[in-house]
Amino acid sequence: MSVLVLVEHEAGVPRDASLSTITAAQKLGEVHALVAGSGAEAKQAADAAAKIAGVAKVLLADDAAYTNMLAENVAPLVADLAGGYDALLFNATSIGKNVAPRVAAMLDVMQISDVLSVESADTFTRPIYAGNAIATVKSSDTKKVLTVRGTAFAKAAATGGNASVEGVTGKGDAGLSSFVGAETSKSERPELTSAKVVVSGGRALGSSEDFHRVIDPLADKLGAAVGASRAAVDAGYAPNDYQVGQTGKIVAPEVYVAIGISGAIQHLAGMKDSKTIVAINKDEDAPIFQVADLGLVGDLFQIVPDLTAKL
Amino acid sequence: MKILVPVKRVIDYNVKPRVKMDGTGVDLANVKMSMNPFDEIAVEEAIRLKEKGAATEIVVVSVGPQKAQDTLRTALAMGADRAILILSDEEVEPLGVAKLLKAVMDEEQPGIVLLGKQAIDDDSNQTGQMLAALSGRPQGTFASKVEVKGAQVEVTREVDGGLETVCLTLPAIVTTDLRLNEPRYASLPNIMKAKTKPMATKTPADYGVDIAPRLTTLKVEEPAKRQAGVKLGSVDELVAKLKDLGVVA
């Protein structure tokens, strides 16, 4: 079997989520990586992808139409390459979730979303009902189209491979859509979904000022990414891309520190696979303590600065 | 311009789903069902576009059992103009739903198809993108802002790193994210009025669409439960534990 993985990249570097998807792909067969983009950054990303352990070949599609990964342009590129592959794998990221179903429908394939494990060449597990249930599904399609949940697979080593890079040409701009602009939050901190430590704040922080005054120094001390509960985001204490949960990002760090988060089902769905969960909350009956490995009951405005100072 | 809004009847988002003992699925007997929350946002956005004068008619469509007409009536009570129920007692996969919606699109010729980014039962997040592929139209997924500008629509999307804006040539498919709007409640007079709004009933066969499933669910299980850990007595204990975990020197 051979498998094509759409490798996402940023500033010439393959994203961590793609390294996890490559690990999932290796369970299915020989892995080829498709890098779509334009110019020097795409070339650099393709060269980096060629070094990823387990990648047998890299396909580089260099066209300005692929710079912003518009689904209307990228999906036909992938669908045209699909003939040579038994499976097409994407990250379950905003890019993968946008592009993969468009590819699947073009190929008349029923996609399997958010794959947690590869049971065999046609059988996979995936979460349903916000992770309240895990379904094992078997596909009867001859070709498989999957999105892979990054936190469920170890990252492939970024070095050790020595694949060839081959240029491919797609149809380019489909003429249906254009990229207007992006507002991305710039941060010195690690990326939320791949950070080893995540410090998250909830509604109990009370204001945007207090959120940053209390959470940020602890995150800096721990070299952690900063997350937030949906309640904190909805209240305007933290930007939306901080949101951890069913409707936000799914994280599974080594250590997750939940501060002033009660632990609604919707939040737990986004972080319950973390290795160690630390909860700080003044309500000792808060549901977060039912999943926390280490709990501390008390006033977060005293505990967190104290903790930050002592670390 | 006409807006088509597909809606799905799902387990109410406040209900905790329970996995059936025999592992065949989630128990939906005697469970409160509601409109998929993301679809509710889509209905609301369509109504706002109509109120702004960007749209003239809102058609809602649902694929599901007879009971799905309750969901359609809710959409009509919120302000949609008419409804189409495509009857199927079997669960239809996103690919099948997208094919049915493509057939409805061909008939209705909407300028925008506005639907939820995912249903909160199967969490597939596929139907809108698949419909866009099948109809050969552009897609604005995970929308937090929708602005119709002449023959185009500008969609601000919630992406992993923040927000991004794309411009799509109409007709286009737009899928909604949570922050797009807060759906209104239907008023009692509007609920009464909705009872007389037109609702057509169809079957997949009427559209000549094959909805045979491609996936077989072998089993459904509860996820592994986490055990509650220990409550610590002081910050110093927590510092010591964090040091043991190796996250701090």
Biggest interface found: A-B, 84 and 74 residues
Number of strands of chain A: 18
What gyration radius of chain A follows from the Cα positions, in whole Å? 21 Å
Radius of gyration of chain B: 21 Å
What CATH calls the topology of chain B is: Rossmann fold
For the biggest β-sheet of chain B, the strand order reads: 9-8-7-10-6-1-4-5-11
How would you characterize this protein structure?
The complex is a heterodimer of chains A (311) and B (249). By secondary structure, chain A is α/β, with parallel strands linked by helices. Chain A has two domains: 2-168, Rossmann fold (3-Layer(aba) Sandwich); 192-310, Rossmann fold, CATH 3.40.50. Chain A contains eight helices and 18 strands. In chain A, the strands form four sheets. Chain A has a seven-stranded parallel beta sheet. Chain A has a five-stranded parallel beta sheet with strand order 15-14-16-17-18. In chain A, α5 (208-222) links the parallel β14 (197-201) and β15 (225-228). Chain A starts with a strand and ends with a helix. The mean pLDDT of chain A is 95. Chain B is of the alpha/beta class and 249 residues long. A nine-stranded mixed beta sheet of chain B has the order 9-8-7-10-6-1-4-5-11, sandwiched between helices. A two-stranded antiparallel sheet of chain B has the order 2-3. The radius of gyration of chain B is 21 Å and the shape is globular. The mean pLDDT of chain B is 95.
Give short descriptive properties of this protein.
heterodimer; A: 311 residues; alpha/beta; Rossmann fold; 2 domains; 7-stranded parallel sheet; 5-stranded parallel sheet; 18 strands; 29% strand; B: 249 residues; 9-stranded mixed sheet; two-stranded antiparallel sheet; 6 helices; globular
Topology:
The complex is a heterodimer of chains A (311) and B (249).
Chain A: E1 2-6, E2 9-10, E3 13-14, H1 16-26, E4 30-37, H2 39-50, E5 55-62, H3 71-81, E6 87-91, H4 94-106, E7 112-115, E8 117-118, E9 123-128, E10 133-139, E11 144-148, E12 164-168, E13 177-184, E14 197-201, H5 208-222, E15 225-228, H6 230-234, E16 255-259, H7 265-271, E17 276-281, E18 294-297, H8 300-310
Parallel strand pairs in A: 1-4, 1-6, 4-5, 5-12, 6-11, 7-11, 14-15, 14-16, 16-17, 17-18
Antiparallel strand pairs in A: 2-3, 8-9, 9-10
Chain B: E1 2-6, E2 9-11, E3 33-35, H1 37-51, E4 57-64, H2 68-78, E5 82-87, H3 94-108, E6 112-116, H4 127-135, E7 139-149, E8 152-159, E9 162-169, E10 172-176, H5 188-194, E11 199-202, E12 215-221, E13 230-232, H6 235-244
Parallel strand pairs in B: 1-4, 1-6, 4-5, 5-11, 6-10, 7-10
Antiparallel strand pairs in B: 2-3, 7-8, 8-9
Helix pairs in contact in B: 2-5, 3-4
